[in-house]
Amino acid sequence: MDCTVSWTGDTGAQSGMGFLAETGSGHAFMMDGAPDEVNPKTGGRNLAPRPMEMLLAGTGGCTAYDVVLILKRGRQDVTACSVQIKSERASVDPKVFEKINMHFVVRGRALNAGAVERAIALSHEKYCSASIMLAKTAEITTSFEVLQEGA
Known about the structure:
Elements: E1 3-7, E2 19-23, E3 28-31, H1 51-73, E4 77-89, E5 97-109, H2 113-127, H3 129-134, E6 139-149
Parallel strand pairs: 5-6
Antiparallel strand pairs: 1-2, 2-3, 4-5
């Protein structure tokens, strides 16, 4: 797996902390930093997600992918899945994630709550490399709710 991340540079009188990421699969996206209130020449312009937000989003995508795939393979009629992620970071550098809660909302027809719980556990214990890596520094907790749709 490959990725190239390039600084987009300064824009005249204003400094920039924007970066263009280009993935090996041929996709591109922007990242930016927060504006620096003290020194505008060193901060970002708030034009795109922060790199650490992208890390959380990628982890959410990784685990939600697993959960949906595991449920489908288990013949569960899942129609929607989202994960709401809340995190806490260390107050000093490196500001690693120390706590992460992932709340899954899974919707479907005649979904078995035990199957949903098992899919989440399998993702976090065996399949989601992103959450397994983050668990090296962060306490990761999960919760879920199942929303049943009519038959």
